[in-house]
Every structure is written in structure tokens, then in C-alpha cells.
Queue: 2 jobs
Job 1
Amino acid sequence: MIPFQMRPDEILSEARGFNEKLAKGVGNLMEVGDIPTGITPKEVVYKEDKLVLYRYKSEQPASNKTPLLIVYALVNRPYMADLQENRSTIRGLLDAGQDVYLIDWGYPDAADRYLTMDDYINGYLDRCIDVICARHGIDKLNLLGICQGGAFSLCYASMHPEKVRNLVTMVTPVDFKTPDNMLSHWVQNVDIDLLVDTQGNIPGEMLNWTFLNLKPYQLMAQKYLGVVDLMDDPKALKNFMRMEKWIFDSPDQAGETFRQFIKDFFQQNKLMKGEVQIGEYTVDLRKVKMPVLNVFAEQDHLVPPDASRALKKVVGSKDYTELSFPGGHIGIYVSGKAQKTIPPAIGEWLNKR
Amino acid sequence: MSTNSNNWNETLMNDWVATQRKYWDTWSDFARKSGVGGAQGPAANPFGAFGSFTANPFAQNPFMQNPFAQNPMGGNPFGGAANPFTGMVEQWWSSVKPQAQGDIGGVAQRFYDMGKSFMSMAEGMFGASGQEQPDAAMQMWMSSMQAALQQWIAQVQNNMDLATPDLPGVSGTTLNTWAQLADTLAPWLNMSQDYLKDIAAGHLPGGIEMPGLGAAQEQFCRALSVPGLGYTREQQEHIQQLARHLLTYHEAFRAYKVAFGKTALASLESVQKRLQDMHAAGQKIESLRALYDMWVDASEEAYGEFVMSDEYQVVYGDLVNSLMRVRKDMNELAEQHYQLMNIPTRSEIDTVQRRQQEQRRENRHLRREIAEMRAQIEQLAKARPEAARPRQQQAKAPAQDRLPIDDVAEDLTAIKGIGPKMAEKLYDQGIKNYAQLAAMNTKFAEQLDEALKAQGRILRDDWIGQAKKLLG
């Protein structure tokens, strides 16, 4: 009946082996020391409040004269795109001839709770774009948004199309009501006004906990079991620790921005309907007419691929390209295969335009 | 940190490895002597010392349900050790924990949680494999997990539960983390079990006495809705409201737990089904690791299905909302006290911050407008000396970038609306011929109009069109 074929002594021996590996492994873990993240050299170009705009340094001058600005999600730290030597989307983009800038939003505190999406997109983001354009003496640049940052970039491109030459969205949700969207399913019955009015900023811990609970068995247990076998390799262990550090390094989210993002995007799916109101603008994706490259992961448990694919139906651009990758939400930045294919493909696409 | 960890590696590690070796050797020895190790050997149960599972159903996680404890055969070489496999992990952890801090400590903790969970599964397997009929024993092990979960669900439904279990196979997950999260959001909630008892007995905070809960919650809730009286009326009302909301929160948490217990049951069923399918297909599991992986897959699938249900959406939302209501009440009560003490409150600071942010936003808008206006003024100012340095000026001012640079002078008074004076003014601006006038765009024409104080004549009299006609 039970297809389990182990004798007690075999069980003992496996348990013993595991226990020893675990103990030695955690011994090695304590030797890991500092875990540096973000490896590509960069310089500060502009600062405002807690925001820092970086420009990445490249060994050879960029062949593409239009600079590329990366906009990351507020929920996470941006070093996922520059994790380690052989796993850096940013390094890949530099190698593909791009002049790369990135916005680090920093860690908002209680005094930042009234930052709205208007402040983030028509304020911070717009000013960063002005700074870059002024530096290069140009009117428009290339914009690359990741996850929530992708949604922000879409909004920006619809409100200020004259400043965006090409738009790249990566693992970006557009349709928040696809049937497989677990996060969206969970928040439909949550009183967001009550939550934000009471809580102010939304703790990163709470957001992180929510993400881990999308797949608790894998993300909170099995993952660590798999690593036990790698723990005698200090390099592999250090790489694992970098990921681990990133996953649990979640800034709080400004209350007012969270309120609008969850209510308008997750609960009411207004981005699809062209009803999102940001400051004085109504976000209409039909106004996004510049070339668009939409990159998504086929096994994304956070942003289901259909949520990204929906962009095709609503975007105004006639030059719309999709690039899908067989991997997950995070794998698209860190898997070896993704590193070899995705940044060069983005670079090539941009260079042609 | 490096000194510490070096010490740990050199001494503790060696000690630990030695202890481990001895420990597992003893086990193997024991297994051999008592015949547990042999496939045909007589059944023996080394887990005699396991506590009865009914006593503490969720000491660590449901994997730990060990039905073989009921019928100990042979001795346990470790006498008092309650859970020998996990006991080793725990012993090891207690020596590591003081050294593991910061980022690394957090990760080590997660490894430890996983290790405990994995080891308790190994324990269950080991117990089953030592039985006369391992198949039946495995079934029994699973059934006992199932029974424990059902029992726990019943306890929750009867409001007798205080502890929170884990999903079988994941230590420190959803329910536990939820409880921790609730604590971080509202630290006093972990006291709220006692607090609820107080409320149930009718002792409200702030020394207010109410009729006790007694048997009927409904009656109690009605008592909580009695309007407050007298000088402390407002505070009484707040406290009554808080008490009602606390009850609602605990109801919501209970509903969440029950739903959650059902998921754990569904996960178990899913595991059993996979085992049956594998059996039917003639597949075999040959390591603990393979069993664990299968367990995770099956459970994740069952969990995924449940959390996408309408039921989960409701219990999840209710839980978050009811927790927030309680927290809001607590904030309000705290603020009442602060106000009495003349201490600034969160709401007041919120008001200040909101206004400040509005002001900052407005400042940014104004700054931008001023910058734009400055640029316009500069453009207009630069339009004047154009005659002197036309080429450079033309390049810099975007509104007139299509205006041809040309010093050929023509009689501008041929255009209706331009008299000799106006013609002179135009010459001063560097506009001397029809081609230049014809090339103006509306924006430039407006700016020029303003600079010349032409009162809208340029567009009204259509100088651009007239110039075009004159050019043929």
C-alpha cells in the first residue's frame, strides 16, 4: 500500500547524514561573513529625500546613446538586478551597450506615509528623468520597469509619452484579475482604507510574509532542505545567502501609495479599464504609443504570466513585442540561463530602436 | 564574529560531531540488537518515551504524531528524550544559537525550523518501519496525524484552543507567522487571551465593571452595547467597543484556524492519494528526502487550491479587518490618555505630515511653473538681440527654431496691421522679411505678440497667412 522501501537502519543513516550536513553547513554559514550585494560600480547622480539615482559604470562607453532608466518595485531592494558577478541583469545590460541608471527608493519611514503614487511617479520619477535628460541633452529616454516598478513605468509612459522613447516592462502586472492571481484573490475582502488609516505605512514584514505564504511549503521549508546539500561549498553558500538577504530585505510601503495601488490596481483593476487617476492625469494605456517590450516569466507565482500578457490588448503601441522566459518571478533575474538570454535580448531590442 | 565562529568551529563543532556519532551509533546498535534493523526482525519500538500525542497535539508540528508510543516494546536507549531525532537538532541548535546573529541568525533559524520538521518526519518513518507491518504502521501514523488535526479543529470550534499548530511538513509557517505578525502589529494582542477572560468576567479596563459573560456570548455582547453614562461616558463607550472588536477578532482568528486546519487535512489526504497512485503505478520512494519532496508537492497543491477558494478570501479578509479594528480602538484609547497628559498624538502628527506633504507637492509644482516661466522669459529676451547674433539665438530658442535666419529686408508694412512703427519693432526683433513671418508657428506668434504688445493682432490679422500670400 505505501510505496516506501526503506529499512529502519537506512532511515537512521539518512537522518544521521542529514543532521551532520546541516550542523556542518550552519557552521560554514557562520563563516560566510559580510554578504555584499550590488556588485557593479556605480555613482550617485541625484538625491532627493530618501531616493538615490545611480548611474552604473561600464568599462566601455555605451553604444546606445539613449540612456536606460530602471525603475524597481517599492516592495523590494533593487540589488536583485545586480546580485553577484555572474548574475547581474545590470551588468548584462551594460555589456549589451546600454547606459544604465537606476532609482533606489530607499526605506520609507512613518514620516513618508503620505507619499502618493502621484508623488512617486509624477514627482520623484519625473524629476529623475529630467535630471538624466538634462545630463544627456535629450528629450526622451528608455525606461525599464520591474514588477510594481513596471506598473509605475506604464503609468508614467501614458502620462508623459513625450519623455519615453522605448518602454520595457519586466514581470509587470497589468490585468490584476486573472483567475490565477493569488495575491489579488486574497486582498479582495480586505478593507484597505481601514488598514492604511490604522497602520500608516504597511510593514515590509507583512508584505514579505504574504509573499512567502503564496507557497509556504516550498519557500519556508523545502528550499532550505535543498540547500543543505550545497552547504559545504562556501561559494554556493554565499550565493544562497545573498538571495536570502534580498528576500527578507523588504522596505515598508508608504501608506497612501499602498492604498491606491491595492484599491485601484488589485481590487478594481482600473489600469485595464483606463480609470486610474494619478494627480491631474487619467492613466490611459492607449496613450502608450512608443515601442514596448514586455518580458515575463512563465512560472511566475507572484505575477501570473497572463497578468502581464494582458498588456497587448490595452496598449496603444503598434510596435509591441513579448519575451517570455521559462522560469519564476525571481529566476528571471538570477538564473544562469536567464542571464545569458534576457539582458542581451533587451539590449538588442533597444539598440534597434 | 569571526573569532566566535572560529571557536565554534574548532571546539563546539568537534564536540558536536563526536556526540552525534555516539548518539547515532547507539541508535544503530540498539536497532540491531532489538532487531529493528532487519527486515524480518521482531518488531520493536524505540520511541517508547514519546509523550502521548493526545497530551500535547502540537508540540512542534503534526509530523510528530507518533502512534507507536502507545505500545512501547523494548527500551529506549535515551530514556527521557522526548523526541530523539529532533532532540538532536535541538541540542545542536542550542549550541549554535548564541553565535548566530543578525542576517545569519535569521537564516540559521530557518534552517533549524526546516531541520526539525524534516527530522520529525524521519521519526515517524522510523517508528513505522520498525513495526511488524510497516504499511499498516505508516497508515496508522498518517491517521494519527489526521486524528490530531481533527481533534484540534474540534477544540478550536469549541473555543478551547489556545495554541497554534503548523502545517505538517513546514515548521514556523502560516498560522504561527500570522500570530507573530499580529503581535508585531499589535503587541498587546498576545496578552489578549487573559484580557478576554477579564472581559468575559465583566472586568473592563479602566476599572469599569460590567455584567459578566456567563454562558451566553450574545447576552454579553448586549451588555457591551449598553450606553455609557456620566462623566466617563465616552471612555466607557470606547472600551465597550474595543471589547466587542476583540471578540470579533478572536472569532475571525478562530474561523481562520478552522479553515486552516481543514487545509492541513486536505494536504494529508493529498499526500495519501499520491502514495496510493504511486503504489498503483509501481513506483517506489527510496529515501526520506524523496518522501519529503513528494509531501511538499502534494501539500502545496492542496494548500494552493484552498487559498484560492471564496471561503479563504472571506476568512482572510475578516481576520485582517478585525485585527485592524482592534488596533484602531487601542490607538484611540491611547490617544485619549495622551491628550489628557498634553502629549502629542499620532493623529496630530499625521495631520501635520499630511499638510506638509501637500505643501511639498505644491512647492514642487510652483517651482516647476516658475522654471518654465523663466525659460519663456529668457526666450523672449533672447529674441531681441537676434539681429546681432541670429545664428546662435535661433539655435537656442525652441519656439522660433523654424524661423529662417535671413537679413534680407522687405517692406513689412505691405501686411495689413503692420504700420511703420510696428515694422521697426519687428526689425528690432530680427524679423525683416515675409519668409520669416510665414515660417512662424502659433506659439512663437503668441510670444512675439506679447513682446511687441501687439494685443493679439498677429494672429487676429493673420500676418502669417498674409506673408505666405505675398510670397506667392
Job 2
Amino acid sequence: MKKVLTMLLALVLIVSLFAGCTQPAEETSGDGDSATEPVRFGVSYFATGTNAENGEVAKISLEIALDEINAAGGINGRPVELVFMDVKGDAKESPEVARKFAEDESILAVIAGDSSAGVMAAAPVYEDAGLIQLASNASAADFPPMGDYQFSLVGRSSEDIPYGVKNVIAGQLGAKTIALIYQNDEWGNSYVESYESSCAENGIEIVAAEPYMVGDQDFNAVLSKLRQANPDVLALCCQYAEGSLIMKQIRQMGWDDVQCVCSGGLVNDMFLDVVGEDGEGVIGWTIYAYSEDYPQAYAFAEEYRSRSGGKNPSNWGGMYDVLHILTNAAIDCGDNLTRETLRDSLAAQDDFVTMMGGNLKFNDDGSVSRTYYPLTIKDGEWVAYNG
Amino acid sequence: MYFVEQLINGLSQGAIYALMAIGFTLIAGEVGLVSFTYGDTVMLGAFSAYWACSLFAENFLLTVLFTILVSSLMSIVLHAVCMAQFLDAPKHISMICTIGFGIILKNAVQLIAGYEVKAMPELLGRSYFELGGIRIGYVKLYIVAIVIVLCAILSFLLNRTKTGVRLRAVSQDRKAASLIGIDVQRTTRLGNLIGCMIGGLAGLLYAIYYGSILPTMGGAISMKAMSASVLGGLCNIPVAAFAGLLLGIFENFSIALFPQGYRDLISFLFLILVLVFKPHGFEFRFKKHSRKEAEHA
């Protein structure tokens, strides 16, 4: 009986391990005729790990775009196929996933639903293979300049933070001092650099800056330390898992006389769900506002809600735009669609349209300059912030 | 006042470490079982409490009972699969088995509850009192009180009851214990059950204290529970609890002087330094007491 139980448990272990691991590549359905073979794009994303909920948003958003593209005839008559692989929210996994995509010659480009740390770790692999890595949410300013095949659609921290500091922190709030709490990785450090230069330009003094490690759960000590500096504003340079814990602990310790601000990583429903009432009054800015003021973004959000059981998309919904833009670049290649021609076509895309509006183009380094929208939490929802 | 605030932060966090260290010390030290599932036991306790809040309309008593029930059932399966049949085998077999069991638990919770952070209802409210401008939540005091009560109950159980004598006897020499008529399987099962129940309760209090839980939270927790337990010499519950408190205070004061990013580096450096100079942790402080007990026995 014990042996049977042990065997059963071992089987469950193996199944559960595989359930959380990389999803298998889909079978190609081509019959050898290149005119009808699917065009295959890789997707590296968070299927598991602490950022898996972002991965879910990314996957559903890509599926919405995929259905639209294939219903409209695909790429010059060829259907589009996505091959998903899990980077597990661990930057050490990203180069390994990149190697697998690079070795598969049918993959013409990779959409990266990965962190800045992950895409930067994988970038050398993609450069060696001459394979596009187009990131949806990696905003570290140092990422796109890493090579000719690196692109990012999210906007750069070097533009995101200057917008927030100038328009929100200095402009609407009139703050004179600020403290930062940031994730200690490439992404978080790029935000700190951006805050340092922007605050200097706007006459705001950074009175304290404290890093934390991904996965930390107790922030009381570091918040006491930041409180000592008595800043007007506390900037949360965090992802939602840690950001929501920090916000709750700020309120639990009774630090009520500080205005908390954040950028896009926290402007989503996941943050709202965890912080609850503790999030009231937090101000953020983001590139995606799914309100009725932006019909295409609103229509996308409606479709997203119908596929996700009523959940709202976060800024990871930008994956929808990523696939459309990559598809447009592939269509422009005509019959000569290779990794190299696709790279040149993508870099040449100008005046492209996102769900928030158009007139965007890639900068020389592969980044995009985006427009930001200030929001605040009021009655448990992100709403427009007008000062 | 700043250092007083950090001391209170350290005591609060240390109390959480102490609570987790108590359960781990009971399983690994007092009963002598190998368990690398402890962090995931705490995680399961936290999620059981979260589910119980939905099932029983946030009734605290029913939540506690449900958490204990789930932890107990898990401990029985864990013992049957990973411990009972390997009691006489090399310890690494049981060790690998418990690691695998922990992975199953974590993946199972991820499949059931999803991967995202869950907000835990404030079962004990958010009442607090102020001391010189520092806000101290009653939850922190409850946790310290529970640690003290558990230390007292378990010390009594282990040192003043036949069950405790049997648990320690099995830990010291299973064959000899078996020869004098002690049911080794039953005794280790009981020790693991009590340890897992405490782990589950620690998960419940952890969830209430931090207000949010995550299926992957077990890894960091088990490292801190083991650290506190090792600092306590692995075989003494009150000393393990004291070591947990000390670890929490040390961590928080280290953050006052260094960036938070160095927290784990500094705390594990502290652990290594203590073990280099005091290989048995802080156990020496209670040596005299233990010798008296041994003479009495």
C-alpha cells in the first residue's frame, strides 16, 4: 500500500512539475508550401513565478490580437502562430529560453513578456542569433541600446520618470523632497538614475533611497528609515507583489502624511485587489488608460474582460499592440520574410498606431517615446488625476 | 525614538521567526525527523486561513480550527509518505522526499489559488496603540503572547509528560526506544503532527500580520525558521524562540545601518559567525538546566 502511495505521489510530483514548466511548442501544420506555412513568433513570458498574473494578462492580450490578425488574413495569407515559453520570473531562465528560440529556425521574432533584468540577460543570445527581441514591458533605458535586434514598446524609464517628476510630483503636487524605495535590479536601478536626474532638473531633493530584493516581505524597518527622512513624497519603484505589501505596511505603521506615487508597474487591478483601502490616494502614471475616452483601448478592455472572467487588463495589455506592430512589419516584408528582413522592417516602422492612439515610431536605439496619463486611486478604482 | 521603533519592528518580526522556529525545532530537533517541507507547511497554513475566511465569513475561531485541520491532515500524509518508511534509512532519502513533497504542495496551491498575491482579510482588526508617536498594532502583541504560551506548553509537554519523554527518547535512539516498548511510528507521527499544526498556525498569523500571501512564500520562510532553530541549538524550543527574536532584532538594526538589500546577507553572516564561535548555537545557556533534568531522569 505504501509503495503504491509512494508511486502515486511520485507521479503527481512529475505531473505537477511539468504543469508549471515550459509549455511545449505547438506543432507546425505546414505541408511544405512556404506560402501557406504559419509565420511563427516566440513568446517568452511569466507562466509561473511571482509575476505569473502579469503573464496571464500578456497571454490573453496576445490571443485577442492573434485572433484579430488571423481573422483578417494573417501575414500575406499565412496564419500567425505563437510559441509560448515560460521564463518563470527568473532572469537566469531568460537566456536559456532565448537559446531554444534561437535554435528553432522557424521562429522569426520573439515577443518578450519579461522583466528588464530578463530581457537584458537574454539580449546577447538574440543578438548572436540575429533574432528580434521585442519587449512589451521592459522599460530599463539601457535595454534597447544593447543591440540592433532589441526593441521595446513600453517607453523608457528615462522618459517615464521625467514625465512623472515634472508633471505630477513637481507640477501638480508641488513637492520639494522625495524618498525612493526601489527593486534592486536593472529595472529598479534605472528608475533611480532617472529620478536623480529628473529631480535635479526640477529642484526636488532626494532625501533617501532604499533598495529591496525581489521576494522580500517585511518592509517595516526600511520604511521606518525612510520615514526618518520626512519626505513630501514617497516613490514606489516596485512591481505589484512587493509594492502592495509596502503600501499596506506604510498604512499599518501610521505613516499617513506622505504622498505615495508610482509608475505603470502598480497601476493595475492586481495592486488594487491586494492593497484595498490602503491604496486610497496613491497617484500613478501609465501609458495605458482603458477608459471610454480611448475607444480602441476600451474595446480591447471589454474583450479582455469577456475572456478573463471580468478582470481588467493592466499595462501588460500592451502585448496586444506588440503583436499588431510586429505583424505589420512582417506584412511589409512581402515574400522575403526572414529574421533579418523582419528586423529592418520593424526598425523602419513609423507612424504606427497603438490602442491609445497613433503617430509612434521607433527611435534609433529601438525604444519608443510614449505618452503618459496620470491616474489616482479613488473609491477603490484607478481614475484620472487632475491635480 | 528611531531606534526604539526599529527595536519594536525587530521584536515583531522576530516573534514571527520565533513562532516558525518553534514548530521546526519540534520536528527536526526534538523528534529528530528531517523536514524540508516546513516553509510550505507555513504557506499551506496561510492559504487554509485565507480559504477559511471565505468559507466561514471571516469567523476567527472557525478559521483557526480549519487551519489546524488542514495542517494536521497534511502532516499525516507527509509522515506516511516521506518519513514513516524511511526512519531507519539514511537521512538524505527522507530529505529528498520532503523536498519533493514541498514542491507538490506549492504547485498544488498555485493550481488551486492561482499565482498572484492574495489579500488576507483583517481577522483581528487593525486596532493599535501609540507609544511616543510609534504605532504598535495589537496583532504584534498577540503574536508575542502566542509565542510565549506555546513555549510554555511545549516545554511542559516535552519535559513533564510521558509523551514528551517518548518524543525525546525516539529522537535520541529509535532502536533503543523501540526495545523499551515505545511505538516509534506513532510517536514520530505525533511529533510531526504537533510541529505541522504550529507551522499552520504560524502561517495564519503571518497572513494576518502582513495582510497578503503568496504560494511561493515558503522558501524564504523556511530559511529563517531553520536559521533561528539552528541558532537555538536545534533541540531547545525556548532557546529557538529566543534565537528567532534575536534574529529579527538583528536584521532590523542591520537595516538601520545598511540598505535593506543586504538584509539576508547580514543575517546569514551573523548565523555563520555565531556557529563558528558557538557551534551549538545559544544552547549553552541552558546546559546547567538540562544536566539537572538528566540527573532527575
